Give the backbone structure.
Amino acid sequence: MKPVYTSFQIAKKYLQYYSTAFNSKGHGMHSPFVFEFILDVLNNRQNFQLPTGIETVRKGLLQNKTLLHINDLGAGSRVSSSKIRTVAQVAKTALKSKKWSGLFYRLVKKYSPEMVVELGTSLGITTAYLSSAAPCSTIFTIEGSEPIQKLAQHNFKKLNLNNIQSLQGPFDDVLPLVLHQLSLVNLAYVDGNHRYAPTMNYFFQLLKKRDNDTIMIFDDIHWSAEMEQAWKEIKGHPAVRCTIDVFFLGFVFFKKEFRVPQHFTIRF
């Protein structure tokens, strides 16, 4: 496996992204769909209010010194390779910030997906925001590490979230079992095993369960050369009609309204 980019390389790439990306105000955007995405999802024109409680759980995780024995089944952490970490260490390095969690919340509020599949539960904060935004949806979330999955389940119970199916095991084993049950996936979030071959494998599996309105999200698309190659190939797939790159996340759309594929890099 090729090494991930260093923090310096990531910072350099981010500066390049920020200096060349489309402005996040929406001015000059000719695609109505992307214009609405910018205003409602990135900029919160609808003034979606985040639920209370989830950030309290995050705060508790960031102060939790309990040791976890982690069996990382993916590409590992860029920050720490230790198999024994405190909950606080995992929370600090693995959880999406409130800014990004809010983006997921607004996305689900905007598009109301009924069936959601998440690869990479971590401690469950992002999952909680997905769940809270669409309480009538069904969310299948898969986590490779058993101790982390158990803690995420505890967090879901604490937040009274009842629409989450939390599963533990390797993605390669569990994802096919989940997809076999489903006729359609409305939203898929791939946040784990950040390597080229697994990422493409998950993409092709999920592709079979898409429709015109399905949204796929890929995490850390600029994390390594492998992930950038995967992102490039996903963008080039004939079924993909539109993508939005906000550096740390890549959004994939299959809308046939885009007669010619369009790819956007937007500041967030």
Notes: Strands lie at 67-69, 84-86, 115-119, 138-143, 164-168, 187-190, 215-219, 242-245, 249-253, 262-265. The mean pLDDT is 94. The two ends are 30 Å apart (CA to CA).
